[in-house]
Design goal:
This protein has one domain (4-259). Helix 8 crosses helix 9 and helix 8 (207-221) packs antiparallel against helix 10. The chain has helices spanning 14-28, 38-46, 69-74, 113-128, 154-164, 175-188, 190-199, 207-221, 223-230, 241-259, and strands spanning 4-8, 34-37, 55-60, 90-95, 130-137, 143-151. The chain is 47% helix and 15% strand.
Length: 260
């Protein structure tokens, strides 16, 4: 599994701002209490910058039944209206409570399948996150910025993308195509898919089995729709429906062997 990513960027470029903001977060909040998720986490696990992103997303552990330290740092509350940028970068923080996903009581989990998957996937992302390094160099190969933090695993990222992609609210509908692009890339890239195949069957409370069902729906039965969504992104070489279906079927075959 990839544990580092190298960007080449100018001092005021997007990658520089993201990594500097991440370095500030790591300095202010204990590393065990949050994990990087979202687009930058996907690129870190892929080991390459496969699409544009201009914000940071994190899952963070609440403290004593209250908000996480990261939420307090970046502000925003439920509406996000009072969010404070960090080094000029918007940070979206999802608080996941203080109980590990595996220890949650099944009877207390939501009945709605997507809300249940949201809760489990984001808490599991924090539980299973591992350290990764992000480094930015100038075009003269001088060090511009670097940060090390806990980053969600490919399996947890796949679980989060499978629940978020089909249900983005209208005001964030533009993020759905990026979710599908990230999902496709994670299931295509050899290093990432190996990690997904190993880890996803161990996701808590049936999350792995749910993800298998959603892969069938989104990448096999819905290959045409998913390919159309990905074409809305800035990817230079978007997949065809046949590409999407092939990747979905390959993932299902290998995951089915693990989940039997």
């Amino acid at each position: 599994m990839s544990g580092e990513i190298l960007f080449v960027d100018g001092p005021g470029g997007s990658a520089s701002r993201l990594v500097r903001a991440l370095r500030t977060l790591v300095a202010e909040v204990p590393s065990a209490e949050f994990a990087l998720i979202g687009g930058l986490a996907v690129m870190t696990r892929l080991g390459r910058a496969h699409r544009v992103t201009d914000d940071l997303d994190a899952a963070a552990q609440g403290v004593d039944g209250g908000p996480s330290l990261l939420s307090i740092l970046v502000g925003g509350g439920e509406t996000g209206r009072d969010r404070r940028p960090v080094e000029g970068v918007k940070v979206d923080c999802i608080d996941v409570g203080s109980t590990p996903a595996a220890d949650l009581e099944p009877g207390e989990l939501p009945d709605d399948e997507f809300y249940r998957a949201f809760l489990l996937a984001h808490r599991w992302a924090l539980d299973s996150a591992a350290d990764a390094s992000l480094t930015v160099l100038s075009d003269q190969r001088a060090l511009v910025a670097t940060a090390t933090c806990r980053v969600a695993t490919p399996a947890a990222l796949v679980a989060m993308k499978l629940q978020s992609a089909p249900r983005r609210r209208a005001e964030r509908a533009h993020k759905g195509p990026n979710d599908y692009a990230d999902l496709y890339a994670l299931l295509l890239r050899p290093e990432a898919i190996e990690s997904v195949i190993v880890d996803l069957p161990h996701a808590p409370h049936g999350l792995g089995q749910w993800c298998v069902q959603r892969i069938e729906i989104e990448l096999v039965a819905g290959a045409d729709r998913t390919a159309r969504a990905i074409r809305q992104t800035m990817l230079a070489d978007p997949p065809t429906p046949e590409d999407v279906e092939r990747v979905g079927r390959a993932a299902l075959l290998r995951l089915g062997e693990r989940l039997e």
